[in-house]
Protein: cyanoalanine nitrilase
Organism: Arabidopsis thaliana x Arabidopsis arenosa
Amino acid sequence: MKGPVTWAFTWVNLIANKPNNCPEVERLALMAKKYKVYLVMGVIEREGYTLYCTVLFFDSQGLFLGKHRKLMPTALERCIWGFGDGSTIPVFDTPIGKIGAAICWENRMPSLRTAMYAKGIEIYCAPTADSRETWLASMTHIALEGGCFVLSANQFCRRKDYPSPPEYMFSGSEESLTPDSVVCAGGSSIISPLGIVLAGPNYRGEALITADLDLGDIARAKFDFDVVGHYSRPEVFSLNIREHPRKAVSFKTSKVMEDESV
Amino acid sequence: MKGPVTWAFTWVNLIANKPNNCPEVERLALMAKKYKVYLVMGVIEREGYTLYCTVLFFDSQGLFLGKHRKLMPTALERCIWGFGDGSTIPVFDTPIGKIGAAICWENRMPSLRTAMYAKGIEIYCAPTADSRETWLASMTHIALEGGCFVLSANQFCRRKDYPSPPEYMFSGSEESLTPDSVVCAGGSSIISPLGIVLAGPNYRGEALITADLDLGDIARAKFDFDVVGHYSRPEVFSLNIREHPRKAVSFKTSKVMEDESV
Amino acid sequence: MKGPVTWAFTWVNLIANKPNNCPEVERLALMAKKYKVYLVMGVIEREGYTLYCTVLFFDSQGLFLGKHRKLMPTALERCIWGFGDGSTIPVFDTPIGKIGAAICWENRMPSLRTAMYAKGIEIYCAPTADSRETWLASMTHIALEGGCFVLSANQFCRRKDYPSPPEYMFSGSEESLTPDSVVCAGGSSIISPLGIVLAGPNYRGEALITADLDLGDIARAKFDFDVVGHYSRPEVFSLNIREHPRKAVSFKTSKVMEDESV
Amino acid sequence: MKGPVTWAFTWVNLIANKPNNCPEVERLALMAKKYKVYLVMGVIEREGYTLYCTVLFFDSQGLFLGKHRKLMPTALERCIWGFGDGSTIPVFDTPIGKIGAAICWENRMPSLRTAMYAKGIEIYCAPTADSRETWLASMTHIALEGGCFVLSANQFCRRKDYPSPPEYMFSGSEESLTPDSVVCAGGSSIISPLGIVLAGPNYRGEALITADLDLGDIARAKFDFDVVGHYSRPEVFSLNIREHPRKAVSFKTSKVMEDESV
Amino acid sequence: MKGPVTWAFTWVNLIANKPNNCPEVERLALMAKKYKVYLVMGVIEREGYTLYCTVLFFDSQGLFLGKHRKLMPTALERCIWGFGDGSTIPVFDTPIGKIGAAICWENRMPSLRTAMYAKGIEIYCAPTADSRETWLASMTHIALEGGCFVLSANQFCRRKDYPSPPEYMFSGSEESLTPDSVVCAGGSSIISPLGIVLAGPNYRGEALITADLDLGDIARAKFDFDVVGHYSRPEVFSLNIREHPRKAVSFKTSKVMEDESV
Amino acid sequence: MKGPVTWAFTWVNLIANKPNNCPEVERLALMAKKYKVYLVMGVIEREGYTLYCTVLFFDSQGLFLGKHRKLMPTALERCIWGFGDGSTIPVFDTPIGKIGAAICWENRMPSLRTAMYAKGIEIYCAPTADSRETWLASMTHIALEGGCFVLSANQFCRRKDYPSPPEYMFSGSEESLTPDSVVCAGGSSIISPLGIVLAGPNYRGEALITADLDLGDIARAKFDFDVVGHYSRPEVFSLNIREHPRKAVSFKTSKVMEDESV
């Protein structure tokens, strides 16, 4: 990656239909195109009557590359969101590097991360809603473990950024909140494969953080520790990943069903 | 579905040839057009020398949309009707919602219902000949299970609605019947995805029952239970549905038959 | 099933370790033995640090037969309970009939029910926390659909049966509750394969409901509708069920691993 | 773990023969017994003519519990040490909790950590030679990821703690070292499952760090994130671990060899 | 092998990507084609971020036949190179004989050699960096033990063939080296199955050594000693070789995973 | 091995009954005791009516340690000798080192050698009848491969050392032999684990060759290459060795034969 590369992403809530043919997605695509940036954006996706916590990927020409669905919602999220499967754990090979994403606490899933390491991820995006200091520790660890750049984006928002009560209530804490109370403190950061924090964390307000990424650092890091290469022990540990879509019901019109043998 | 929508259907016996180019079907189409209603109508269809128990679908402009053939006739019906296959389980995406139908006791088939749920059915039509109270329990369950509106139509008829003996005899019970004896007691009903009975059941005579359907109830219901979405367990249960037509004899001019391997 | 058979069950919350070698389970086993009843009991099971909503089965001699884990927790339950898999969907062949269980809203899962129908379930137990009238509709439908007896147990409890606030609070409704307010209204019931309610529903207090089950009703019901037999259409619908345990990590000590060839 | 528990460990170099019947091991056992501590100690083990980087475990009565061999030596270590296998990844169930260990950079191996999580590790010991700040980030992440206490021990040593040149030379840097130059800066730390640093890191000199561990924090942490329990997705990711010893040559005197089929 | 056959190989260092679609490999293929020789060439292969010490095989028409990866790097090599597995121990059946290769000190591994003997190797290639006289002893022994021709290639190079310091330093010995100092003394040789040195060793400079191989010598040698045939004792010694690729992570997209049953 | 150790052996023909209670063996034992040497002696052993080519081991106090039977006779030997099995591949742990032996061309068997390497052989004795130069190459290779001292003894004898014709005839060559013709040229040698020839080979006459063995050379050699330790790849290659005696007929008085399942 020669010369400085601009990279921008953020984390917004968006009610989206299927990514294809959806006005919200088209608007994001246009933004990516207009600003000539690769855009990795957290959205709420709807398929049928189930919502998913999803990340969308766009290239710098506004092309929609694909999506990742959060595999396992956390705590109360499980009342809101469905469960992704192995078919949306993409790592896209782009001119600026191999890009993928894991969402919030699924970054803690060692097998999910290993799947992305095995796909050669170089630019590991981690949209989150966790603004605690321990998040930075996890991001640093992932950069070291995976030998990749980690770009973690978190929203910064105050009480007043949400609708007023009773339309929107923060459970059990509404009385203690002023309009300027920080609800989520941000803390976006960019970390190199050697564990160096290149930008952020910023806990003070909305911000655009940037860093020039020297992809050569990946080789430098993996020289000593290549998590799925020379430092793995495949004869002791082997991780199997099932990537086919999981569907409750499959329709076939051809006479031979592929999954007849399942 | 903005504003009130009028919906009407009933259950008649009809000897039909192929739905296309068939005067009876044209007459039904004209009715739908005249009254500007979506018409979901049970008929007896003839193909070759076999009869099928079939539902026809027309839109409010009189367009014939398609048909569903009962997959499995019940009891003595098997002496009269043939068996449908997977090629006629349609769910039509119309301006008033996604419409499909299951006939009488095939409503008890969990896999058939699941097929229609997976196609996103919103207005589930259930023409029947079962006027027992347990039928309402099944309709309520289906509304809850599928997160859809259930519209069940049953005929109300007396002995005198049929030809006189000996032209038409009710087996073994003719002597106890008066002309006003109720032969089938009706009980049509409309039930919401939350299990609320919006109209019916009416067991007292011919009637037109109506309800305004708030399709938003579907999302409200599926928030907690989405049968083929977030509440399914596709990695444990996967239902495969073969939708190709089943023919006893196929003619091919190409050298390799597609279904050779079936 | 000649002569009257006493059947008793209820729905209690219980923190259980692994079913084997667990004092709570032993106590249940002793109860079954003492009262000479088959006991089908809802419990909260703990494995490692994850809880499961589980049903335990004991025979009338106090033998622990096995368990079923709820496959998909409902709504807020997903914050508390883990997810069962296909390995605990048992139907036990006992001298009083084939017994299995589905828990609360997983009774709405058509594929889970079909799995139990395919295993020949005769005495379908449905512990629940749903005391609405629509629950009885679902139970009736399941009896008809599956051609089996349905025994649904629900707890009856008042506010005073729980600890006082602030130790235990009912979310958002505490101020409107008196000690005698009914929190869960019960409604246990027993329904025959022909859809006849043999006992219950009782919404007025704690109660023991009983019925004599004539297993011949199963054959009578299936004569007209055998959901996985003569009324199924396996060439159109085929449901695949994966029953092996799902483990995040598997350890092997023998030299030949089955997946050595992967 | 009621009441305060003293826990001590350090990281020393030791030329050991087989752990059993080895005077160095006996001396360590006596220390554990004398001070009534569980002792988790890094040693250099010799088997035949190959050395291993190993951790030994002793209970507070001086009983040798077992050992863990480093699976993959790092960088130049590979010229000195052999490779462990899957047969020495123990987690010991002791009265003070379930104890295991990973050595230095093998702590970066996500599959090794997952193996120990699956064995229920509660007290995760991480002897290391890495005194960089990023090490603390990794330890914090592991505590959060595994929902366990992490106890990381690193040596503090100065140039003068080693023999003088030419007997012992630090490669390429000898001239810049004074006798007081810090060669390895320590940084031992104890971290809770919630990511709280309970003791350390201490980079200033030899020290004994202690903390009282409230094992209830493990359940509190795993309520939201149970890495091999409710937050795993075993139907997507399954990790297989081969635990049998790997031997280049096996001798059998019985007539039936177990591995005949390998 | 009728008539004289020209055979040429050497040992060079080459940074190669994957053998397929790699310009360096294509260049080697063109050389083999141009000179109509079978080419067995040591290279440095890169996969992901891990390097392997590899031998490539080309036939005399320039076809790339396959590769062998060094199974175990020696000493400091372990800091640079990853570890091969059982999936790249090929023996190619070509018109000039059965060809395979072992790299440098892995020639000392009796089990690796036995694997190649069992595959019927006739032309055993041994690229090396060992120019000591004892190397010739090992090569002679292998020819006798395996009943095969051994062709060992080693580079001849002087200090001046490498970049000048400080760009490239020979550890600890730079001051004693003149530009003409021999760094690696060559010693390539060709040995018959009867232990006769047919060509080489040449320790004086770059050279092309050749010999006509009479493959009949193999049969003559094995008449008295057939290492995996009449002189083996399989009821006492059985060597098991696992040839499947070892992967830290495996992805599956088809619905039926081979390890689904694990 | 501090200080010089005297070691002596030779190669004689001896018709022996069972080693125990056999005058020839007692004579050898007395020699070992008298001269205070460890004695490793080739003999011809008789059991029943079959002869074996055997090596006997005695310690320096005249204690008979055990024996090794040649596993596979070579060429015409097969007309004279039976076949050993896995029960006599001993390596004796003595105060002067771990001692074992392989006879003549069975030294070419890579699996037999590996068995002895795995038993930790340090002083590898190789009585032989092969006086060709290639024998020295094999001995050198074995020393390097096994990281052990190799002591190879061969007889030196002339025609006159054998009975005169017609009592004893050398097949097809008798006429060209004078009484002083060398029949077997000796060539005994002692080689270090680093491949250095410490004594011999002597092809000129009967001789006693000696060397002081610095067992520290073994560790020095195995630092870089430990054939069954850090340089093995047990997950790729595993050698199984069956050490139980093979008997054509076994008598058992217990009802279950242990080898029933073989």
